[in-house]
Design brief:
- It contains 21 helices and 10 strands.
- Helix 6 runs parallel beside helix 7 and helix 15 packs across helix 16.
- The chain is globular, with a radius of gyration of 22 Å.
- An 8-stranded parallel barrel has the order 1-2-3-4-5-6-7-8, surrounded by 6 helices.
């Protein structure tokens, strides 16, 4: 029996709807999702901490609490970016430990943890913190294709991950470039040589993922990641109903409640229409095999297009897609996953618009200095010498250079904005965004639930206010 992890409430809408799905649209269907038979629901982490806070004026901690109150049987999991937590740079150890503890306290059962460079030093703190409190810990191998990212590289990496005494390994294919044959070989090797539970996570960008998952299951994968059908495909994930039907009446049968899945899928199809302005799948071809060359994850497209649009250069997207592999090569073949996908993509845009490395972003300079971790391969020597200016790149774990931050944060954040201890963590992660949200929350909290008359553009509207 293979177990299915549902990503609808995290990665699916992050990939398709720019992470704009609101909590109020999740609430009516949560209890039904709890009955389907999923091993776990991925509901938090990734961009679902930052985006609700920044764009929806929603408290991500409150969202997690609401979900946990309604999902009582199924495990809840989150995606954690190692020392980056849910942000875009490294944070001090004290913040990492406190964040993991509070996430567990608020309902997270499983921590899926990765580092963009597969530098396991950047996972030590969060893995140890999650293990110490009794959570289930899954460490990802970020999957990419390059001259050094071979089958042997990943088998050796799996052995190093297993040595951390975690519960399982996730093969994290964020771009949808893991072929069925490679998946079969990799899973087979890990199961026979490392003997640890394996989860396969593959986006459907190139169209291969459903077959990749089936071959993974045949090779011995213990878990596969899916989304309900109405929130699947394109840059999202394989449809849960399809996978369940293909595996039904076999030794791998996940035994999901298909009738409930159909109901849940219909619900999300109706809800999805509300988010049409963000819906990536409505604006692009359903399959993009070019991803096998440029390896860009789905969420990165919109970012690239936005940058080019600001410069009135949208027609130069093809040039940017061709430049991205060149920047990756120069930087030692980093995988394209947050935050490195944004760093490589932005530098590629600047190279196309202004000439190769005529302008270099600060994040590239920090990367070359080793502040994100150990590059998979040597960095272009000319570029490295130019940016280091005689300095030596750091050799230590990057977070060893960071001082504890929580005492400072607790002195700095005005007490009037603090409703709970988690607010300090939110502020430490995203100070400006958090402060803006806290001020908004303060104003809203002065209003009571009930009906109000609102005058707008000379018209009177009746508004009902209800808190979640």
């Amino acid at each position: 029996m293979v177990k299915i992890v549902d990503l609808t409430l995290r990665d699916a809408h992050q990939s398709l709807l720019a992470t704009r799905l609101r909590t109020r649209d999740m609430i009516p269907i949560l209890e039904e999702m709890d009955k389907v038979g999923f091993y776990s629901l991925e509901v938090w982490g990734g961009a679902t901490f930052d985006a609700p806070l920044r764009f929806l004026m929603e408290d991500p901690w409150k969202r997690l609490k609401i979900i946990r109150e309604r999902v009582r049987k199924t495990k809840l999991q989150m995606l954690l970016r190692g020392q980056n937590l849910v942000g875009y740079h490294h944070y001090p150890d004290d913040l990492c430990v406190e964040f993991v503890e509070k996430a567990y306290e608020n309902g997270i059962d499983i921590f899926r943890i990765f580092d963009a460079l597969n530098d396991l030093r950047n996972l030590e703190t969060t893995v140890k913190a999650a293990k110490r409190i009794g959570a289930e810990v899954q460490v990802c191998m970020v999957y990419t294709i390059s001259p050094i990212h071979t089958l042997s590289y990943y088998v050796d990496l799996a052995k190093d991950i297993a040595a951390m005494e975690v519960d399982s390994i996730c093969i994290k294919d964020m771009s949808g470039i893991l072929t069925p044959s490679m998946a079969y070989e990799l899973v087979s090797r890990i199961k026979s040589e490392v003997k640890i539970s394996v989860d396969v996570h593959s986006h459907t960008t190139s169209g291969m993922a459903p077959v990749t998952l089936i071959k993974s299951v045949e090779a011995g994968a213990d878990f596969i990641d899916c989304a309900v059908s109405s929130m699947s495909m394109y840059t999202s994930h394989s449809p849960a109903e399809t996978m369940a039907v293909m595996l039904k009446n076999t030794v791998f049968d996940p035994k999901l409640n298909l009738n409930l899945l159909y109901k849940i899928s219909r619900y999300f199809w109706m809800i999805r229409r509300k988010y049409g302005e963000y819906d990536y799948a409505l604006k692009n071809p359903p399959v993009d095999v070019r991803v096998l060359e440029h390896q860009i994850p789905g969420g990165m497209y919109s970012n690239l297009l936005a940058q080019l649009k600001e410069q009135n250069a949208e027609e130069r997207l093809t040039e940017v897609l061709e430049e991205i592999p060149k920047v990756r090569r120069d930087l030692g073949w980093p995988p394209l996953v947050t935050p490195l996908s944004q760093i490589v993509g932005t530098q590629a845009v600047l190279n196309v618009l202004f000439g190769r490395y005529k302008m270099i972003i600060n994040e590239v300079k920090a990367y070359v200095k080793g502040l994100y971790g150990r590059p998979p391969a040597p960095i272009n020597e000319t570029l490295k010498n130019r940016l280091l200016e005689g300095e030596k790149p750091i050799k230590c774990r990057p977070a060893d250079l960071l001082q504890p931050i929580l005492p400072k944060i607790k002195r700095e954040l005005p007490k009037k904005y603090v409703e709970k201890e988690e607010d300090y963590l939110t502020y430490a992660l995203f100070p400006e965004t958090a402060l803006k949200f806290f001020k908004y929350r303060e104003k809203i909290s002065a209003l009571r639930e009930g009906s109000y008359k609102v005058l707008m553009d000379g018209k009177e509207y009746h508004v009902k206010l209800k808190y979640f």
